[in-house]
Amino acid sequence: MSLPKILSVDDSRTMRMMVKRAFRNFQCELFEAADGAEGLAAAIANKPDLIVLDYNMPVMDGVTMLRNMRENAELKRTPVIMLSAEDSNEIISTVARLGVRDYIIKPFEDENLLSKVTRIITLERKPETDQPPVV
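The chain above was modelled as a monomer; its predicted structure follows.
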């Protein structure tokens, strides 16, 4: 069985590190991109099982990336969880119409992200090791 592939797309390196930290105890392949254009290219190349996508980014924002994905036969059904500091109902309804599976307001708790992710894909914990946890 192959590991689930997760793509984190956010212009903030700190936010990408937070997403990475949330998945540190789980068996998965995590890919990262710093804007929607990079994210779209990474999605085409890696065919992720789930995308954690920032709403507001330079070069190409999350909504534009999402619209491009929905027009791509191979990506149109890829589940997306939108991350944003914005909590306006207008934004949430816009991304919902584009098929976003869930919406998380930044900053987020690891448990909140993981609970939403595990409704979409199955995550297995990494086997216990004698190594101290990486923080």
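The chain has a mean pLDDT of 92.
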